[in-house]
Structures are given as C-alpha cells and as structure tokens.
Amino acid sequence: MKLWLFFSQTFVARRLGCSIKTTRRCAVMTRKAFTLIELLVVIAIIAILAAILFPVFTQAREKARQSQCTSNKRNIAMAMAQYANDFDERVSPFEVWGGWTGCSGVRWAGGNTFVTVPGTISEACDPFQRWAHRIQPYMRNVQIFSDPSGGTEIIRYEDWFTGGCKQSMARFLPGGRALIGWCWSWHPIFNQILFSYGYNQLVAAHAGNAGTLAKIQRPADVLLFCDSAHKDAVPEQVVFRGQSWSYPDELVASRIIWANVCSAQCNVGNRTENNTRHHMGSILGFADGHVKFFNHRTIWAQSNRLAGLDQLPGFNLQ
C-alpha cells in the first residue's frame, strides 16, 4: 500500500514538474478546485436552506408591517376619542356618495330616516367632511393613514376631476383645487397619500348624526375603522335599506376582507386570499378604542356583528 502511494505521488509530481521532495505539497496543490459533484451538492444545500428560510423572512417582514399598522390604528383611535370628547361624544358624521343623492347633501330627519336636502352640497364634494380630515388636527400626521402592507387609492390631483360639484369648495382650498380619491373630493393635505383605512358609516350615522356613542351598547364588538379597500369600510350601501344600490348582508364586510383590491363585492374573481391585507386577515379598530387582528374567515362569519348591525338598525333615505 505504501509502495503504491509513493509511486502515485511520484507520478503526480513529475506531471507537475515537481521534485521528489515536494511531491506531497504538489499533491495537495492538485486539490485546490472543487469537483462538479461537490459544487452541485453545495448549490442544492443552499437552495434547500433558501426555500426554508425565505417564507420565514417574509412572515417576519409582514409581522413588522402588522405592528406598524396596529400602531397607526391606535393613533387613529386616540384621535377619534379626542374628537368625540370635543363634540359631545359624537364621532365624525355620516358621509354619503353624491351619486346616490344627485350631488345634494343629506341630514338626519329623526328616527331611522335621512332626507336629501336640495340646494346643499353633497358630503362627497366637500373635502372638509372627510372623516380623516376631521380627526387630522388631533394627530398632525397624515402618513398614519397609510398601511405599509397596501391600499387601493393614492389621493392625488387630476385635471379631469371637475364635473358636478366636485370642485365646489375649491376656492377654500390651498392651491384652489380639490384632490380625488375614489372620486370623492379631498383636501390638499392628503396629496400623494396611499389611503389604507376605512370608516364605519353605520356608526357614524348613529353616533355622529342621530345620536352619540352611548347608542352603542357593546362598543367592544363594533368596529369603528379598519383595513379597507375604500375610505368607508362599512359604506352607505350597508347603512341604507331598500335602495337599488344597497348591499345584501353577505357583502357587508367585503371591503374589509379583501382590503387590497377594489370591487370585490361585485367581482367574485377578486375574492382571493392574495387580496387580503395582512396574511389572510385584517386589523380592526373598535368603538371602545382597542385594536385587534382578525382572520378573513372570522370577519366573513361575524360581519354583521362587527359592523354593528345586530345592535344598530339601518336607515331609510328619502
């Protein structure tokens, strides 16, 4: 065995031009490079580790985004609480899309009835009526309305945004123009903000127009704002009953569940887990001020209770 090793080393040394004395060193020199099989094994190991770790890194990044979103909502909750304290326990009032009212505003007429008031400006055309604008002085940072995990609308200027009453308040705005967001008029302080959260208009109608927060019997069960595909998470389509544009009960939470895509309520193809905001769920802020993550299946199953329909009746529009 030793004799064979000696001759093999001598053969290698001669091929490399080495002397007998440096044979062992030359033999070691021949092993500097990896073989193809060794390289393939290393690459396979790296690929396996990457496949294991990348989802972990993605989930860790999403958890960090959830933490930021939760912090945003807590700040919004504190701002709304301060607003309610200054306005006799009333939250930001109800806003109605002008397309339903002929660009006229609405007012509470008592009981469960709102009426359209001809000659007034629709809430949709008045940037000062946005719920986010009303509580902004209590937070002084509009970036809080942006979720790092997504949103569906960037508030912006558009030259074509002039029809109807959309620019009716322009003379009162810096720059003399209203911004657009979901075809609603917005104040310039929200320019280029990715708006990610929505308001519960049912609570707004009851506790902003037709009463106070005292009307909510179980505030820990009713959401006030949350992740949403629109600035109104529970919109007027849920608040008003008997209208041709009213939502059926099963679509009450469609904007909340699929918060990263528009029109999930009327486009079944958009109702996918990829269109949820936070890894198959959304973060909700409640009327009592607490904030909590809910899985999208839980939101779907408990949508009426979360919206407040089990304790706050809908309204009629005349």
List the keywords:
single chain; 318 residues; alpha+beta; five-stranded mixed β-sheet; three-stranded mixed β-sheet; 10 helices; 12 strands; 14% strand; elongated; disordered N terminus
Describe it.
The protein has 318 residues and is of the alpha+beta class. It has two domains: 1-32; 54-317, no CATH class. 35% of the residues lie in helices and 14% in strands. It is built from ten helices and twelve strands. The protein has helices at 2-16, 23-29, 36-86, 98-101, 131-135, 201-209, 236-239, 254-257, 296-301, 303-307, and strands at 105-108, 113-117, 153-154, 179-181, 184-186, 194-195, 197-200, 223-227, 232-234, 281-286, 291-295, 316-317. The strands form four sheets. It has a five-stranded mixed beta sheet with strand order 9-7-8-10-11. A three-stranded mixed beta sheet has the order 1-2-12, with no helix packed on it. Strands 3-6 form a two-stranded antiparallel ribbon. Helix 1 packs across helix 2 (23-29). The chain is elongated. The protein starts with a helix and ends with a strand.
Number of helices: 10
What structural category do the secondary elements indicate? alpha+beta
Q: Span from first to last CA?
A: 105 Å
Lateral arrangement of strands in the main beta sheet:
9-7-8-10-11
CA radius of gyration: 31 Å
**Helix-strand topology string:** HHHHEEHEEEEEHEEHHEEHHE
* Domains (count): 2
Integer average pLDDT: 87
Write the layout of secondary structure elements.
Layout: H1 2-16, H2 23-29, H3 36-86, H4 98-101, E1 105-108, E2 113-117, H5 131-135, E3 153-154, E4 179-181, E5 184-186, E6 194-195, E7 197-200, H6 201-209, E8 223-227, E9 232-234, H7 236-239, H8 254-257, E10 281-286, E11 291-295, H9 296-301, H10 303-307, E12 316-317
Parallel strand pairs: 2-12, 7-9
Antiparallel strand pairs: 1-2, 3-6, 4-5, 7-8, 8-10, 10-11
